[in-house]
From TrEMBL, chains A, B, C:
Gene3D superfamilies: Protein of unknown function DUF4152 (3.30.420.440). This is Uncharacterized protein.
Length: 227, 227, 227
């Protein structure tokens, strides 16, 4: 099974470890044995003006996943929304009302589906590829999350080289390491069976530190400053 | 404390990683220090004609646990149903109605208790051994789950030697390894404190691979083919 | 950020692994990188006459945290009650009624807040330090829990040296080790990013064993006897 997935994660943090805004949406191609990405692409957001309601993230994820899917022709796209694995092209208003999610979640999806549902329908009729709202059950979604953390870390390093300093909140229970010519990231949850990722990194002249976010248990902070 | 427990797990998977049916019910005897089984027995099901509602699994577990208990005389039997640790012999209709479980769960238990409750009552009056519906709180239940995964893996290997190939979905966050003359299995959750199991295995002529189930996060797949 | 936190944990267990009563409340000072305590103090309870409703624990925690805070002047106090991070000094009756917690939780807080709320208000006006009901989101609360486990273990060793034997239930997924001149403890959950603690220990003449509590998955037992 060849799966494309996308997820948004990694936040610029203020002094009190609260998120200012999200940084990166990553789309990944995941193939058997489903432990890392065969290919990844990224779309950066501006964390200083970010809509934290979730609308922006979902829209970015659908569009970026479709972009990668057009190139690599996967069997399926996994979306990071846990709606019983329903195909996005079937997500019309009555279907949304019947979901067992919060009223706020329904309001967001009523708004989002206006353009995303016809988009998914056209994409499916042209390519045969379903976009499934499978969410946290998908290993591919988790790998996309790890890549979003890697790209956010890279953004943080480049930001610090310009501005002197950055404090990045990584996605849930993952860590990153700067290695020879690359950034390495892996899940801290051994129950996931060894999920990891890596992206190229060819900059120098910075110091970094990883430690637990004191007000968000199981989330790590990547802190970087220019040397 | 000497505990007998039973659990059902391990599923034959189709090409899309969906379960076709469950494979094995294992009963185990667990003694201090409660990290593995001192003894285990198995009852295999036919995964190609399996009732996935849960009824068959619970019935198989009660009967297999009682079979092992008659032999090893434990202090207590732990059942994999999380009903506040209530004794099965007390599970009559008014008690079931008063439980905080789903209506579907109640319907299943009303049906199951018809023969299991008198059975448990007779077993208790003859042996003094309680059958407790303690469920996921019990370490013995988790060890039984690991053994169900081991026996399912063994079933998969033997199936592949006859039919050429098998894909087994293991119980939650556990892995298995083929070692000299045995199958080894262990929990992937370090919070559980190092739970593991092993069963004899004396067949050869197969290759295997373990990897995450892409549509069921924290569940691993054991895939085996004839050499 | 310099954080003081307090938590109660570690229970004396009976033969059936059920808690008789809690043993220790620990208060800790946690500083960046938020992996262990820079300083810790303890208040022991009498496990043989302990109010397991939670009232005693919360009261002990607030008082012990304030005691340590007076000495070390932290930026904030984190309390192990998950009430959306609300400041304790604002926890009056209408605020408690508006919380999304159980009726039993509300009753307990209505009673507790009678003296704790004015106390927190005075403490805040004198020191500027907020006492936040942040609960399980706080890494400092988890470190306090690990220290409560360490002090409970120490209590158990001293009890066994007098009485011959003790069986201690540790706080959730942590283990302890007796090392040269100290007790070492660490979280068994790697998702937490490597939280640990240590306290001095200068007694000898005992044997110990650590193993999973068979009726409380992910909780370990520390068993100690006089040599």
């Amino acid at each position: 099974m060849r799966i494309v997935s996308a997820d948004t994660g990694g936040a610029l943090l203020d002094d009190g470890y609260n998120p200012i805004g999200l940084i990166a949406t990553a789309a990944v191609l995941v193939e058997k044995p489903y432990k890392t990405a065969k290919m990844s692409i990224v779309k950066y957001a501006d964390p200083f003006s970010y809509d934290l309601s979730g609308r922006q993230a979902i829209r970015d994820e659908v569009l970026l996943a479709m972009k990668l899917a057009k190139k690599v022709k996967p069997d399926v796209i996994h979306l990071d929304s846990t709606l019983r694995g329903i195909p996005l092209r079937q997500l019309d208003d009555p279907t949304i009302d019947a979901l067992r999610i919060s009223d706020r979640g329904k309001a967001i999806w009523h708004e989002l589906s206006k353009d995303l549902q016809p988009l998914a329908k056209r994409f499916w009729s042209e390519t045969g590829i379903e976009i499934l709202a499978i969410g946290k059950e998908s290993v591919a979604v988790r790998i996309a999350e790890i890549y979003a953390g890697l790209y956010s870390t890279k953004w943080g390093i480049e930001y610090a080289l310009k501005e002197g300093f950055a404090r990045i909140g990584l996605p849930r229970y993952m860590k990153v390491e700067v290695r020879e010519g690359m950034l390495w990231g892996e899940s801290l949850d051994p129950k996931e069976g060894g999920l990891y990722g890596e992206i190229p990194l060819d900059v120098e002249g910075f110091e970094y530190q990883i430690y637990p976010n004191p007000i968000a248990r199981t989330f790590m902070v990547f802190e970087v400053k220019k040397e």
